[in-house]
UniProtKB/TrEMBL annotation:
It is found in: Cell membrane. It comes from Candidatus Nomurabacteria bacterium GW2011_GWC2_42_20. Belongs to the cytochrome c oxidase bacterial subunit 4 family. NCBIfam families: CyoD. Keywords: Cell membrane, Electron transport, Membrane, Oxidoreductase, Transmembrane, Transmembrane helix, Transport. This is Cytochrome o ubiquinol oxidase subunit IV.
Amino acid sequence: MTNNFEVIDERYEASHHAFKSYAIGFVLSLLFTIVPYFLVIKRLFGDQSLILAVVFFAVAQFFVQVVFFLHLHKKSRPRWNMIVFIFTILIVAILVVGSLWVMRNLDYNMTKVFDLNTNEGYMLEKK
């Protein structure tokens, strides 16, 4: 028979470990957000290097979110975790690509330059 204090100690250790994981993830997320912000504001690199640095920090931020907040590194049900994760990435990709497609079509249709010699467009006739 287990002692009640052992159960309490196990729960305390688990919650302490979870808090530590969230705290580390939060600090890393702040770091990976603030550093690229200052790199862009201070213009410390050239354009191409700056884009690469920001993309690097974005990918690092992604992995921090996956490991420390989504806990996909745990071995509880790795197959289901990966299936759900890939499905989520697919849905987000569909939303992003669809939004970009709609915005591109709106930009094309709303900023169309008409030839002034034709009757197209909104040219008023002078009488």
